Amino acid sequence: MHLYGTQSVNNHGHLTIGGVDTVDLANMYGTPLLVYDIALFRERAKAFKETFKKAGINAQVAYASKAFSSIAIYEVAKQMDLSLDVVSGGELFTAVAADFPREKIHFHGNNKSYTELQFAFDEGIGCIVVDNFLEIEMVKEISEARQEKMNVLLRVTPGVNASTHDYITTGQEDSKFGFDLKNGQADDAFLKLYNHPYINLLGMHCHIGSQIFETDAFRFAAVALMNKMVDWREKFKFICSVLNLGGGFGIRYTVEDTPLHPSAYVEEMEKVVLEMTRTHNYPVPEIWIEPGRSLVGDAGTTLYTAGAMKEVPGIRTYVAVDGGMSDNIRPALYEAKYTAVTANRMVDPHSDKVTIAGKCCESGDKLIEDAYIAEPVEGDIIAIFCTGAYTYSMASNYNRLPKPAIVFCEDGQHQLVVRRETYEDIIRLDVPLQKTEHGVSS
């Protein structure tokens, strides 16, 4: 079996993360429980930053926090001197609560509201990544009314079809995100912002998709954006000071996945940019990237407790756990694949083929269809690896199930950073019906 980061097996035959026994964690905090290996997060962040440093290129590595947002993870990102990519007022509010450096916050999103944009101005954030023409007008209106400057990037779609799932491909021409480079939209957007007294247009941004294993797509995107930068210099004497090439770097969920080391993606970007700036005598822009999944994905492990079991002779054996699609929608939404182990019996043969099913009232609530674990016993602690990205951030209260607790582990220490929801939390926003003799009050 493949272990990740600081994971190991102790003398009791238990899975450990960050030097902490996962069985102890399950007993202390209950299950489902999402456990983060913070040392692995730090290692990945450092690798991205050092690759740019070695090349002598000015860069910002921004944590794409839609993968997993919380005050605590923002505080770790701040410790690592990362920038921060937020995509909503809620994520921005969380960043403010974490006292994240405002000048290092980049605000994304394809339908930012006027209120959200005002919030960004209120906080004096570092950059707004403008996604559409309505947003251009709103940013201009707010900046003019306040007579306050704002840094802006234009999000563009470079026409690159990355080899990934349709739902997580974003760089092709038919996308809800950004201005198309090929049909003239990007030029129209540029002209609306160019030379505006309160808009500081830094450059361009693109994001071509998620869970990408090859570097070719990043190369094609970088070439497309650099060509447009050269074009704008020739036509308007405008120099882009920032080139943001997004994220989407793949991680290993199963043995079939073959991700590259984080530095490989960065090195390919650097190579293209340096080649083209030399060819066109163009000033080397500051490069920004936005890793999310590649920072937190395989740093996260979800612990469940095995419950009911059902054997369908000749077909499959179901092992039900105390979570499911409510805390990890990805298998149902994307047909995402995962790997599991029996955390309390790691040394036992993991040769029993089972389907790990969730407890939600849906036939499709299956976390893993072909999992190989130790011969299952009620009460086993089942660990599913690489659940750090897009699980808790996409979690719901379907069937009115409480969201799980989250624990950070590092150097033999553990800390609760998100408490488990209670039933009281679930009904906290409910408003009882106010009845009259004729029924519902008006």
TrEMBL record:
InterPro entries noted in UniProt: Ala_racemase/Decarboxylase_C, DAP_deCOOHase_LysA, De-COase2_N, Orn/DAP/Arg_de-COase, PLP-binding_barrel
Catalytic reaction annotation: meso-2,6-diaminopimelate + H(+) = L-lysine + CO2
SUPFAM superfamilies: Alanine racemase C-terminal domain-like, PLP-binding barrel
Pathway annotation from the record: Amino-acid biosynthesis; L-lysine biosynthesis via DAP pathway; L-lysine from DL-2,6-diaminopimelate: step 1/1
Positions of substrate binding: 293, 330, 334, 362, 390
Cross-referenced NCBIfam families: lysA
PANTHER family: DIAMINOPIMELATE DECARBOXYLASE (PTHR43727), GROUP IV DECARBOXYLASE (PTHR43727:SF2)
Protein family membership: Belongs to the Orn/Lys/Arg decarboxylase class-II family. LysA subfamily.
Protein name: Diaminopimelate decarboxylase
Provenance organism: Sporosarcina luteola
